[in-house]
Amino acid sequence: xxxIRLARGGAKKTPFYNVVVADSRNRRDGxxxxxxxxxxxxxxxxxxxxRIDLARVTHWQNNGAxxxxxxxxxxxxxxxxxxxxxxxxxxxxxKVEAKKAKIAAExxxxxxxxxxxxxxxxxxxAAAEAEAAKEAAAAAAETEAPAADA
Length: 150
What we know:
By secondary structure, this protein is of the alpha+beta class. The protein has three helices and five strands. The chain has a five-stranded mixed β-sheet. The longest helix is centred in the last third of the chain and has 68 residues, at 82-149. It starts with a strand and ends with a helix.
C-alpha cells in the first residue's frame, strides 16, 4: 500500500519534515518514491513553513495512495492559502498572550490575597495589643484607686 506521510529530518529539537510518497512497509525515514513537499513547524513568521505540490498529491491519491492523518490536516491547511496560515499564527500568538495575561492576573490576585491576609493579621494583633494595654491600664487604675482611698 502506498501512503503519503511525513519523513522527519533536521537536528535534535529542530524538526523538519519532508512530505513523501512511500510504501507503507518502509521505515518512516527510509526509502520513498517521491518527495511532494515539506513542513517546517519551527519556521519563523517570514519563512515558508509549508509547501505541498497539490497536483502530485492528487495524482497519487487517484492512484490509490492514502494520506496519513497529519498530512491530511496539512493538505487541508495548505488548500486554505497563505492568508489562513498568517491568521492561524496570529490567533495562536493571541491565545498565548491571553494565557500569559491570565497567569499574571492569577499571580497578582495571590499576592494581593497574601498581603490582605497579612494586613488582617497585623490589624488583629494590634487590636489584641490595644485591648491588653487597655486592660492593663484598667487594672493599674483599680490598684491605685484603693490605695488612694486608704
